[in-house]
Amino acid sequence: MSLDGRYLRVTAAEVTRMIRDPEGAYEFASGLPDDRELWVHKAWMAISIILRRAGHPLDLAALNVADGEKTLPVGEWGGQILQPPKYLDAHQVRIAAEALSRTSYDGLIGGIDPKLLSKCYGLHGKWDEKDVEWVRLWFEPVIPFFEATAGEGDAILAWID
């Protein structure tokens, strides 16, 4: 199990379809265009810790924002998964996108204790500047992904696999 974070832009109609056909949801989601997916590798936990520390309304680990995430009631989801996929509806995506648009990575990591980040999955030992820059590479696409999704009025489906 790799513990990689994945986010997929989906329309409200696509969420409804997956809810109505939980056994076919994974196959349907897998067939959506690749340009609608954002992969944040193992950095999802570090990103989540950094955002929580800053009091950000978006928690990428729990996929929780504002009034909470919704769990997608699905059957099999790709064979390896820690928990069922969750999704943010268009309203929640808009809240997250607005908050992210006022966020800079440098502002988030300023003064952070590297010991806090050493708790992240997939990263062991002491953190140094190289590790912080590695997380930046995975964090920076999150902002335009949420902004574009909000701009389309879409939802975001997320899972850790």
TrEMBL record:
InterPro entries: DUF1877 (IPR015068), YfbM-like_sf (IPR035944). It comes from the Bacteria. Gene3D superfamilies: YfbM-like super family (3.40.1760.10). This is DUF1877 domain-containing protein.
